[in-house]
């Protein structure tokens, strides 16, 4: 952690120094333009009337840099984020990322970039499934599978008017501005079409073990973790046909590839050495075991690109691996919100017009400005942070438990997974560093590792309030079943509740009626509890004072309409009427109204949702043989603010009144009772 703190401070300093340099260089640009007008400085070599980028005479200011990456699955999607962070941290040019993805990575990354809203960054996606037929005929032993061959198809996959692109593996970390790499295209001879770094292991020398027979390569061969592809020239020489012929010829004797696309690229270069431009090895410092990577640098400042190309990744053996690991971990945990900074002197449209308009409508003198500002804040969202697998039930009765949590409730996850065997959709409100702590926690837990039907969605922290309803909505939107059980993470459902709810969905004809099934809530004040295995056992514990109806001591009316007295003897579901401040935990159809995101922190976040369900004429039906128990924990920070701050309570009351007015406008006469109830409180 000391290393990480050190690197974080260094990186922050670099950002500040970078911004100062940008301002200084912008002034220099003005002077250069004046000199050009006076005829003292000539035009660029290509005759284009561009202003050259201050840091290099070969990089044009605001020139768009294209970067391509093949990404498939949940784990690779996480790796891509760290790669992108390292690029964004150092860059001073607009970027266009081109991702060749499977359906999983497409969903994750499209949502992430849409919510990240980084200025001067464009993102395009290409369906890997449409390219599989191009390479599926090639036997491949590499752990990357079919996706490890897809870089061969980029001339076909990427737009025909795209002339050149930097192609990167997902396990790359940048230690410099990517524009320096882009500039090397201008050093290509007329015949060169591809730029690569020499392979730093002895793999292609064929001396690693007895009878080791690698694919043909020029000398040590080349590593394809970092590639400069001159697409326009590749298309001109018939690249698609050439690599196919090369692969077909070599597979007659080699039978399969060992290093996926890298073997085919090297065999092609062996036959056509004039087409390759060899990059300095610091552009791809390869950290697999037994490499010559240490010869690529003598000083830290020499490093350009670090490539974790061993299956061991961060556990690889290298003399300086601790330094590289801490540099990587710094970007891994770096606050992605800080990378939303504008590029100095380059136009950007990162902020949508609707968001910009909403910001301009806010009154900064409003006492509740911070609350209103939070409602329109766009939080970064990383869906399916861990591996997720779900097979839909054939009877359309499946129910997902939906909840949200932050770092201080992480300890509840294992218990919930033991109590609920069905699918779960969880939204976690965390910083980048906390998300990595959660990842390590989940990977170390046998209970969580064995559950693949839990979707974990990270909503990254931003602002001073906990956007509880926004986080709930992320979990709700990403449930994949017809019905959802809207719960809180500090409750444990009774054993067998999942199956009971599915039967209740059928019994109460949920498919054809508007119902919200109420699961009665109880609580214990004891941290150690012998969890009741039946309703009879729970009633016995109620009578003994081991359990209580939820919030009986502090907020009775929140759950009083459940009618616990009736529930004690009920054997069939019964209907209850809405009352002011009622906030039960319910099972509803997945297409139910979302939570109102104006309510942040503590207060009225669930109450408002139940009011809207009632306004839409949902029948509230209490289940007679269902229950959930709240486990004790320390008070949240937001409830402390509510109790201690008059301003907080004033703004919450203001938001409540505005919500009532909006409800009345939306539902008319059906919502009048809420105004009456509010006046009577």
Automatic annotation (TrEMBL):
Cofactor: Mn(2+)
GO cellular component annotations of the record: Golgi membrane
Catalysed reactions listed for this entry: 3-O-{beta-D-GlcA-(1->[3)-alpha-D-Xyl-(1->3)-beta-D-GlcA-(1->](n)-4)-beta-D-Xyl-(1->4)-Rib-ol-P-Rib-ol-P-3-beta-D-GalNAc-(1->3)-beta-D-GlcNAc-(1->4)-O-6-P-alpha-D-Man}-L-Thr-[protein] + UDP-alpha-D-xylose = 3-O-{(1->[3)-alpha-D-Xyl-(1->3)-beta-D-GlcA-(1->](n+1)-4)-beta-D-Xyl-(1->4)-Rib-ol-P-Rib-ol-P-3-beta-D-GalNAc-(1->3)-beta-D-GlcNAc-(1->4)-O-6-P-alpha-D-Man}-L-Thr-[protein] + UDP + H(+); 3-O-{(1->[3)-alpha-D-Xyl-(1->3)-beta-D-GlcA-(1->](n)-4)-beta-D-Xyl-(1->4)-Rib-ol-P-Rib-ol-P-3-beta-D-GalNAc-(1->3)-beta-D-GlcNAc-(1->4)-O-6-P-alpha-D-Man}-L-Thr-[protein] + UDP-alpha-D-glucuronate = 3-O-{beta-D-GlcA-(1->[3)-alpha-D-Xyl-(1->3)-beta-D-GlcA-(1->](n)-4)-beta-D-Xyl-(1->4)-Rib-ol-P-Rib-ol-P-3-beta-D-GalNAc-(1->3)-beta-D-GlcNAc-(1->4)-O-6-P-alpha-D-Man}-L-Thr-[protein] + UDP + H(+); 3-O-[beta-D-GlcA-(1->3)-beta-D-Xyl-(1->4)-Rib-ol-P-Rib-ol-P-3-beta-D-GalNAc-(1->3)-beta-D-GlcNAc-(1->4)-(O-6-P-alpha-D-Man)]-Thr-[protein] + UDP-alpha-D-xylose = 3-O-[alpha-D-Xyl-(1->3)-beta-D-GlcA-(1->4)-beta-D-Xyl-(1->4)-Rib-ol-P-Rib-ol-P-3-beta-D-GalNAc-(1->3)-beta-D-GlcNAc-(1->4)-(O-6-P-alpha-D-Man)]-Thr-[protein] + UDP + H(+)
GO biological process, one term: protein O-linked glycosylation via mannose
Pathway(s) where this gene product acts: Protein modification; protein glycosylation
Record-linked InterPro entries: Glyco_trans_8, Nucleotide-diphossugar_trans, Xyl/GlcA_transferase
Topology with respect to the bilayer: Single-pass type II membrane protein
Major localization listed first in the record, in broad terms: Golgi
Single GO MF descriptor: xylosyltransferase activity
Annotated coiled-coil segments of the chain: 13-40
Intracellular or extracellular location(s): Golgi apparatus membrane
Keywords: Coiled coil, Glycoprotein, Glycosyltransferase, Golgi apparatus, Manganese, Membrane, Metal-binding, Multifunctional enzyme, Signal-anchor, Transferase, Transmembrane, Transmembrane helix
Function, as annotated: Bifunctional glycosyltransferase with both alpha-1,3-xylosyltransferase and beta-1,3-glucuronyltransferase activities involved in the maturation of alpha-dystroglycan (DAG1) by glycosylation leading to DAG1 binding to laminin G-like domain-containing extracellular proteins with high affinity and in a phosphorylated-O-mannosyl trisaccharide dependent manner. Elongates the glucuronyl-beta-1,4-xylose-beta disaccharide primer structure by adding repeating units [-3-Xylose-alpha-1,3-GlcA-beta-1-] to produce a heteropolysaccharide. Supports the maturation of DAG1 more effectively than LARGE1.
Assigned protein family: In the N-terminal section; belongs to the glycosyltransferase 8 family.
Name used for this protein in its record: LARGE xylosyl- and glucuronyltransferase 2
Native source species: Oncorhynchus mykiss (Rainbow trout)
